[in-house]
Amino acid sequence: MKKLFLLILLFLSFKSFGQKSFDFDFDYARFAYDSTSNFLELYYSFNQQNLTLSKTSTGLFLQAVLFIEIQDTISKKYLLRKNWKIENPLNDTTELHTNKSLIGVVGFAVPKGIYKCTLSGFDAQDSTKRKTLTELIKIEPFVDNKISISDIQLCSNIKQEGAESKSIFYKNTLEVYPNPTMVFGAGMPVLFYYSEIYNLKVDSLPKPLKLRTALYNSRGQKVSEKYKAIVLNANSRVEVGTLNLTKYPTDTYTLALSIIDSSSNYGISSTKRFFIYNPSVKDTVKVANINSDILSSQFNVFSDEECDQLFEKGKYLASPIELEQYAKLDSTKSKREFLYQYWKRRDQDPSTAENEFYNDYMNRVKVCEERYGTINKRGNKTDRGRVFILYGEPDEIDRYPNDIDKKPYEIWQYNQIEGGVMFVFGDVTGFSNYELLHSTKRGELRDDNWLRRIQTN
């Protein structure tokens, strides 16, 4: 879920300001394999406009490199560490301006366990153009004595008639084209989905059964729902479908597939979050009518000043659209409602009463207030405080308070972000206000000549 949240923020920033970054994404889905393993499919995409055009005697082409690393979090052993070279021939340079992506899939049988899965994508001609994404994936075999549903695979298209059996996207008589970005709406108004249902002939299973397909927005409202009967003529079946998303406003949504019996006293579900970007569709639902839970939340007693202070602490997560929305609020009531929804959207497990994301974030704010405050700045407004709030405790900190020819400085290292990144902070003014001088993290200040700013000679 963290990956999706970061993707949304990056996507909104790109649309709002035209910022350029290396556009590489991945998604995954788990399917049945045997009683001890799942079949893990990893879907990847490279925006071909980010890749360097190469020309040889045989023509024009683009090349990217995909690196996949799957590590068991318990034994620390690597199940896989491998590079793939991906090549796309072009007829002419006009194909570079079509905003198409190089999309693919790789799959592996993975035993039961919890794995850290890292995918890196980079330009084969320029390895500095790269992006690394990491996800924790739990493998729990589907093959047992109870009904179950696989993950939902989000797709840009599913081809049934004339499906090509030699295609890398071919499975169960279909060509299933993934959408690893998990972004739909403008430019991709129809969402296709693929899933598999297992163990339908279990004797203890209540019958008859129905499949419910429901769509929820970020506020937990059900915006779409449909039912169909499940025919029990086989032990497993493939379930595919489409959703027309043209009428839904920009937001995060959850697609839920549920198997229920006729009396609704039995059910099992599979869910998938994704993002819809429809700037031309107006959200007509008023926040005040969304959820009465706000009345019993901590936000309902905040004063106007307390609302502003909380948003100031939390705005490092805000998209440009959210910053603009809050700036336009003119009443305490509207600010309370905004903050309630702002943190609810970031709740990674809405099924629990606590918003763990909010609690973890505010705990980091509290720590940075104690550690990084200066004479005239609260800790959350300092550069070290901001980095700590956003990225958490560094894996390593090297402190240099007494170098003869340099002002005090620190180097923070994060090993799990983008394959390893660093932040350099320096006390340039001499008042213990350590400013960010340089970082290798994408989107942060980069100055490879940062040493000149802290030299005393």
Question: Care to describe what's here?
Answer:
Mean pLDDT is 85; it is low at 1-20 and 286-290. The strands form five sheets. Strands 9, 10, 11, 12, 14 and 17 form a six-stranded antiparallel β-sheet that branches. Strands 3, 4, 5, 7 and 8 form a five-stranded antiparallel β-sheet that branches. This protein has a five-stranded mixed β-sheet with strand order 13-19-18-15-16, with no helix packed on it. The longest helix has 17 residues, at 356-372. The chain is an alpha+beta fold and 457 residues long. The two termini are 48 Å apart. It has helices at residues 2-17, 304-314, 320-327, 332-344, 356-372, 383-391, and strands spanning 24-34, 37-47, 53-56, 59-72, 78-90, 101-111, 113-123, 126-139, 148-149, 153-159, 170-171, 174-178, 183-185, 190-198, 209-217, 222-229, 237-244, 251-261, 267-277, 396-400, 409-414, 421-426, 435-439.
Shape: globular
Mean pLDDT: 85
Largest sheet: 6 strands, antiparallel
Instruction: Please give the count of helices.
Output: 6
Give helix % range: 10-25%
* Helix and strand pattern: HEEEEEEEEEEEEEEEEEEEHHHHHEEEE
Question: From the helix content, strand content and strand pairing, which structural class follows?
Answer: alpha+beta
Low-confidence stretches: 1-20, 286-290
Kindly state the number of beta strands. 23
Radius of gyration: 25 Å
N- to C-terminal distance: 48 Å
Which percent band covers the strand fraction?
A: 35-45%
